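Pasting as-is:
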Amino acid sequence: MSSALPVIVTDKMGPRELVTEGENGFIARDAVDFRQKLDLLIQDESLRKKMGTQARQYALTHSWEAVFHGLFHNYQRIINYS
């Protein structure tokens, strides 16, 4: 995403939380779905560029400072919960 490219991620675990389906990437349900979405991005340059631009814009909102701030906030919440 930071390289202005759309992504294709699995529908399992964390990466799917970073993707808005059809805007900055795709979430693949299985290998067949992955291949279909990859083929679409390969064949449709306009879509690939549009989604890549949106992926880059999204990536810019997730600086290391913001990521670590969120992480420390979550740690503090867990510590306070105990």
